[in-house]
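This part of the workshop introduces the protein records we will be handling. A record pairs a protein's sequence with a compact description of its fold. Comparing a sequence with its tokens is the quickest way to learn the format. The record below serves as our worked example for the rest of this section:
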Amino acid sequence: MTRPILIAGAGPSGLAAAIALARSGRAVEVHEAKPDVGRRFIGDLQIIEAASEREPVPEFLDRIGIERNFYFRPATSATFYDHRGKSRAIRSDAPFGYFIRRGAEETTLDRGLLAQAQKLGVNVIFNSRLSEGDIVATGPASPDGLAREMTWRTNDPERVEVFFDHTLAPGGYSYLFILDGIATFGCAIVAHFKRIDEFFEHSLASAQKRHAFTIPSETRTGYSYMNFHLKTRATSGRSLFVGEAGGFQDYLFGLGIRYALTSGNLAARSIIEGRDFDELWQAELGAKQETSLVNRFLYEAGGNRGLSMFVWQAARASDFHRYLSGWHKRAWWKAMLTPIVQRVWRHRGRCLHKPGEHWCRSRDTEMKVPPLGPVQTS
């Protein structure tokens, strides 16, 4: 009797792999260390980015065999703020992303993927930690970005707002999403992780001053991590590393769900088709990750003046999706910059990223941010 394919981790990448394998007729066993899916998240609103590929997200999901049995709402407009508080309206003909929810609640991406996998016969075992598996989808081993988020139920008017200010969110941004009675406020950073609570509180107070919103006494707060590194292999022995366990992430804005689903599906294809996993992901994701590294360098090097220019250009563009797609293109000059950025930002010594040899960023290259002082609420 053929043994089942073993997958460590029931996040989006692990379940995407399980779904593809089960659709091909393979027996699959997913081991999840926690007692349920989505336990890292709080029912918060997140986004599947749509600008890094020509293939629209709905067609992408159809191609990899994932049904939309979860909250799924296109994003075509937003308001961006620069560090001076200048607001600019963003518009897009084609969605620049799709909002989903994360967590263990009904309608979340996590719950939807679990239901699809189990319907196909996948055996998902909770409170079970694999020491190794055919596919490793265990999430980030070392943080390269950190976000604190808060979510709550609300009757406030809908809005999508993003705040770009390196002083309040070094290397990152803060954001407020209010959609269909759910609100999520978050602050994402790539530096000074020990100060995340300080940055969150100042970002929240600043957002309230720009455009006030109601925060009830009952809220949920959580933290999430981003894991990015460059490698030539995402394999170790017989194990294929996917999602954040393999460092698959967009480094520009820290959006990783599309990378997670893609890498999980590619790992499944490598098993089904008997193809080399490293060749598959290198062809589809390798150049994209290198481009995102250069994008991240430009995002930080420009400082707040550069972010103001980004906000102005995004609003000036007739279609934000098209404008953002330009950032993700593999331009010749970005290809030339890649080895330079790698040399300047290279971490030297041991780190926690897996698997095997890779490039990752030194913490010594973090942006310098002074103390912010007491939170100003008015």
